Amino acid sequence: xxxxxxxxxxxxxxxxxxxxxxxxxxxxxxxxxxxxxxxxxxxxxxxxxxxxxxxxxxxxxxxxxxxxxxxxxxxxxxxxxxxxxxxxxxxxxxxxxxxxxxxxxxxxxxxxxxxxxxxxxxxxxxxxxxxxxxxxxxx
Length: 139
Fold this sequence. Notes:
single chain, about 60% helix, disordered C terminus
């Protein structure tokens, strides 16, 4: 069994892998938005879960970004400043993967999504490594 710190770093590595896919696909106009959205959602989800795991917070198996953000707050952890923007990625975790009729209701600003995901990874890494103090969410 791995320690909470090892588990958290493993989640962060997986989040980086998903972010890599986002960065590679954003400029590719042939790449479907739902695929980019899915990997962006996964990167955000895993980055948030990494911080929760490092704080020994038990979290449910969920793709719900809002729920994970609420868990951060409930445990005295300041979420990343992008938190309100991240919540819009939740539908890409499940619904957008399986229901092609939902494609019209899920719009994705690719450049903004890429910027947000990179910032969330930086926040998560800063929390896990303590290298720099992450910016707190503005009130």
